[in-house]
Amino acid sequence: MSPESRMPDYVIVGTVLRPHGIRGELKVAAETDDPQRFNRLDRVFLRLPDGEFRQAQIEHVKIIDRGLLVVFKGIDTRTAAETLRGATIEIPGSKVLPLPEGKYYYFELIGLQVVTQDGELVGTIKDIVSYPANDVYVVATGERDILVPDSPDIIREIDVRNRRLVIHPMPGLLD
After folding, report:
1. Could you tell me if 67 and 19 are in contact, meaning their C-beta atoms sit under 8 angstroms apart?
2. Domain chopping of the chain, boundaries
3. In the prediction, which pLDDT does 2 show?
4. pLDDT tens readout for residues 126-141
């Protein structure tokens, strides 16, 4: 499978938290390392909690301390904004920005086989949990899940092309 074929159709870049004010402005949690990218987007897709999926045009974005304030065209009242509460803001996978060498999107890592330096198969990454210190890979072994910290002491190689993550397990990590 080529890396391009793993690209999801849409990638979440934000989540609507709640209306802000009475003129349709929305408080949004950015789910991107670069909240400034919202200033370069004019059209996005909204996936509402009820499953509806629709295109939306961004009229205005303001970056604030704890997220974003966003105004979409046609959403100009608090009542209209309330209908978007909980919606994810998504962009086509083809619009994902390239990352620097050695950095990966979560969707690139989900599904990687995890092996030890000795070649022993540990399992498959099924989820990634972010913590302030580092990410933790949730590895499904078939019997249980193992938590593998994204630490240079443990992670020896990430090979997205060959769908493999090589670890040096600390004592007790695989027990």
Report:
1. no
2. 3-95, 106-167
3. 41
4. 999 988 899 999 999 9
33-37, 44-48, 142-146: which has the minimum mean pLDDT? Answer: 33-37
What is the DSSP pairing of strand 88-92 with strand 155-159?
Answer: unpaired
CA distance 70 to 93: 21
What is the fold, at CATH topology level, of the domain defined by 106-167? SH3 type barrels. (2.30.30)
Query: Could you tell me the pTM of the whole model?
Result: 0.74
Same fold, 3-95 and 106-167: no
Rounded-to-integer distance, Cα 135 and Cα 129, Å: 6
Burial class from Cβ neighbours inside 10 Å (0-12, 13-18, 19+) for residue 83 reads: middle
Using DSSP's 3-state secondary structure scheme, residue 3 falls into helix
DSSP state of 6: G
- The architecture (CATH level 2) of 3-95 comes to Beta Barrel (2.40)
Q: Which residue has the tokens 């100009």?
A: 76
Model confidence band, residue 80 (pLDDT cutoffs 50, 70, 90): very high
Tokens of 62: 């303001």
